[in-house]
Amino acid sequence: MSTCTEERARIPDALLARELRAPRYTSYPTALAFKPDFPISDYVNAARLSARCVEPLSLYLHVPFCASNCFYCGCNRIVSRNPDRIAHYVEALIEEIRLKAALIGPARRVEQIHFGGGTPNSLVPSQFGDLLSQLGKRLKLAPADQLELSMEADPRMATPTDVAQWRRLGFNRLSFGVQDIDDQVQLAINRVQSAAQVSLLTEAAREVGFASLNYDLVYGLPKQTLKGFDRTLDFVVDQRPDRVAVFHYAHLPQLFAAQRAIDAATLPALETRLALRNLAHARLTACGYRAIGLDHYALPDDALAQAQGRQALHRNFQGYTTMSGRDVLGFGVSAISQLGRTFSQNERDLAAYLAAVAHHRLPIARGYRQTAEDALRADVIESVMCKGAVDYAEIGQRHAVDAAALFAEERLCLRELDPEQRWLHADERGIAIEADGRHLLRLVAMTFDRHTPRPPA
Ligand code: SF4
Fold it and tell me: Most CB within 10 Å of its CB: which of 269, 290, 415, 433?
């Protein structure tokens, strides 16, 4: 692995800046290509076909409620603590589980269930219990020791007692949004949480036997400095979670209303953002974490690091995963499902979602059915994002095409990205990205994307 200093010396800032604006490729095509005229019958057919598939299935449940409004947020979420509203939503989720499970049936084994948000821990433990029991009744869940059951939790809304209750319900993976522990940054993003609280919950999670703990960090936030972020990293390496995700904050106030509360003048300049990212990389790898794909880090004995070692890392809507099956069944407002080559996304508006489910209708609002060419490109993009390499012969064989010949044009574009082949090697056999080109994976992947307009140079 090359050092960060080498990376800065070899890769022009202009390329790194372009990369920060590229999609994260949790699917191909990305959700921006989904179409509102997607026929529900396509979903129904995909679900029925999927019932015969032997690959394991993942489930995603979206909980949109949050206690307050973090200014950097780009998620689909609703600021509300109203227990009646939350209870009503849980009932709707149960109805959606009934509708979707009736199509797939109990043949496919579910090996992964993830609660995301919003803030999943807006739900009380009994509500998680109700949802899990409905899922268990209607789908075939793997036995507890083989089921990955995870939740993104807001530390501000959790106590050690909650953590113990989640564990008793079967949760075995937990992710805490830490972002940055610096006071000034926390005030600027309207998310004040003490390091002591995160530490208390981390200890509680370890005591009750959570198998894996993740911290999310964000760089590029207002008022963020190298010195302050270094203190955050001191805290992280001291707590030693199994995984750390280091995400870039994309300031898009025209798209996300909450971000309009951020004074753009307080955002770190590009040079500082890149330095923050490099600092995280240097500190985490120096402390024994392995760099995983684009923006994750994991301790060597964590399943993600081991999967990367076996070249068995995959990508789904939640990011990097060890699950080989791509199919995900999404529940809740804005949740995305992938069944075979069919993507579908639920209504993004809560009222529209609740109305559809109240009328026992699938709450699907948009979707997309991959063509054979999309599936081929998706395979290449996943290989770039997960392995940092592409073998055209292997991929061509899977799709019964001559991939090297098909991607002649892309090869020329890749040469333009790195004419001197310092970090990117692209020829008719495939692609190899050196370790210090890791932060450009999305830009390489984007070369194969026929749906997303290129970010300006
Ligand atoms: S960042 Fe997370 S907790 Fe904050 S508003 Fe967004 S979804 Fe809610």
Answer: 433
- What's residue 263's pLDDT? 96
Decide which of 302, 329, 356 is a domain's last residue.
329
Task: Identify which of 53, 150, 46 has the alpha carbon closest to the alpha carbon of residue 109.
Answer: 53
Backbone angles phi, psi at 144, to 5 degrees: -50, -40
Residue 7 has pLDDT above 50, yes or no: no
* Planar angle of CA 105, 340, 319, nearest 5 degrees: 100
Higher pLDDT, 2 or 61: 61
- In angstroms, the Cα distances linking 35 to 15, 345, 369, 370, 378 are 31, 10, 9, 12, 18
**Ligand 1: residue whose CA is nearest its atom 7:** 118
Q: Give dist(CA 87, CA 222) in Å, integer.
A: 35
The answer on 4 and 62 residing in a single domain is no
**DSSP state, 435?**
G
Ligand 1 centroid–CA 445 distance in Å is 28
Question: Sorting pLDDT into bands at 50, 70 and 90, what band is 9?
Answer: very low
Residue 102 pLDDT greater than 80, yes or no: yes
Same domain? 119 vs 58: yes
Q: What is the ipTM of this complex?
A: 0.99
- Residues 400, 313 share a domain: no
Residue 289: predicted pLDDT:
98
Using one digit for the tens of pLDDT, what is the confidence trace for 378-389?
999 999 999 999
- The CA-CA-CA angle for residues 32, 322, 152, to 5°, reads 65
Q: Which residue's CA lies nearest to atom 6 of ligand 1?
A: 73
Q: Is residue 346 part of a domain?
A: no
Atom index in ligand 1 nearest the CA of residue 69 equals 5
- Would you call the peptide bond into 118 cis, given omega within 30 degrees of 0 as the criterion? yes
If asked whether residues 432 and 293 sit together in one domain, one would say no
User: Is residue 201 domain-resident?
Assistant: yes
Query: pLDDT for 104-155, tens place per residue?
Result: 988 899 999 999 999 999 999 999 999 999 999 999 999 999 999 999 999 9
Residue 55 labeled ligand binder? no
Which ligand 1 atom is the nearest neighbour of the CA of 152? 2
Q: Does the annotation place 336 within a ligand binding site?
A: yes
Structural domain that includes position 433: 1-29+371-448
Query: Is residue 455 over pLDDT 70?
Result: no
Do 7 and 82 fall into the same domain?
no
For atom 2 of ligand 1, which residue has the closest CA?
Answer: 118
Q: Using CA atoms, how far apart are residues 308 and 311, in angstroms rounded to an integer?
A: 5
